[in-house]
Amino acid sequence: MTPEDIGALISTIGLLTQAGGAVLMLVLFSVLLRANQRRPYFAYWTRGWAALVIALAGVGILYLPPVLPGDTAIIVRAAGVIYQVGKLLFIAYLVGGTLNYLLGLDPLRFRRVALPSALGFALVTSLIPGVDLNHVMLMQVPVMVAAFGACSLLFLRLPRSRATLGSRAIGVVFGSIAGLWILYGVALGMVKLYGVLNVARPLNFVLQYNSYFDLLAQMLLGFGMVVVLLEDARREADDARAQLAVAHDHLRRVSLYDPLTGALNRRAYDEGVGLEAVGARFGTALVMDMDNLKAVNDTYGHAAGDDLLRRTVETLRKSVRPLDRVYRLGGDEFLVLFPAARVEDVMPRIRAALREANEALDAGQRERLAIEASMGAADFGGLEDLPAAVSRADHAMYEEKARNRAVSPARVPVA
I want to staple 97 with a disulfide (CB 3.0 to 4.6 A). Which of 45, 141, 187, 322 is the partner? Predict the structure, then answer.
């Protein structure tokens, strides 16, 4: 075989390899598109790979012996049309997908302008008499350089908040392809100017083995596009997880707080919520049970009873410190924890707060909103001693309730 035959064989193998790579990319993108149909930019890129496969099929007809009967010139011209149309549609779809991804360009508006323009340019340039494959490639150079160069700039100039590994990679690849086509343009121009390639052997090498350069470029471009897709999907997944976490926190809050009064509930106490301030400190546990809630419910209705419960919690909150915790353990039973405090300091303060709250009521409100309660308190030495202290405080509360009932079986104001 002559060196020319070896070069032609290498070029043919390169074309077939490039076509095989484009087909593999089309298959990969088609599979990924099935799970990402809501992303128009990726649908455009997938169509771009389909158009490239069509373009390479047109070039393949020029390299392979004719298998169809008829005029070879017609087959060659048809192959040139297929190549030019496919290649320009490839460019149009890649640019359309890029503009949709980066700028949110409406795909429908893009199709109405870009695709007819690409088809028209392809048909006009490929049907000019005397145009061969080198002419077609030479006419593609300004389009390819402008399109890929613009895509590269758009990706590489993204703000830092949007710049990712995928966007940088695809921006660099777009720029490299634009540079590669500048070399193609120079080499093809010299062919037309001098008629031979020997005047520029490095350019001769680039042009003769352009299929291998194109294969490498399209593999890197496809890799960058897949990374961009995966990053986009990951952002959506991260957002969904964040929304789920917010919903979970909301549901947890709902499950740990009493919806009527806003106080922590028994579940919160059982799970240790709000006990962080207790830690290794001593403190006081105060249990309070309302004496008049049932009477208010029976006399004025449950709406009045709800108002009384809310007012009780509001009064307790105003009389405690930020590190103290108020729990509603049951219907009319409350637990208040006072880290770093003693019974002799806590009980007078809470009794005084309830008394002041009752004195602030006018005569019309007193029957419905006066807080009447029995209380018990006990000291604890640490978190381990807290359950026992709550039990002692509960026992003391019931003793006071019994004394209050002995004094008056009806409603007894807080002393």
Answer: 45
Q: 195 — phi, psi (to 5°)? A: 85, -10
* 209 to 9, 45, 246: CA distances (angstroms): 11, 26, 56
The confidence score (pLDDT) of residue 7 equals 62
Q: Are 347 and 353 in contact (CB under 8 A)?
A: no
What is the value of pTM for the model shown? 0.67
| Mean pLDDT confidence for 348-354 | 95
Distance from C-alpha of 30 to C-alpha of 43, rounded to nearest angstrom: 8
The residues, any chain, with a CB within 8 Å of residue 359's CB and separated by 6 or more, are none
State the pLDDT confidence band at 125, using cuts at 50, 70 and 90: confident
Show the CA angle centred on residue 182, arms to residues 180 and 186, nearest 5°: 120
Answer yes or no: are the C-beta atoms of 218 and 52 closer than 8 Å: yes
């001769």: which residue's tokens?
204
- Cα 129 to chain centroid distance, Å, stands at 54
Q: What tens digit of pLDDT does each residue of 166-187 get? A: 999 999 999 999 999 998 888 8
Amino acid at 190: M
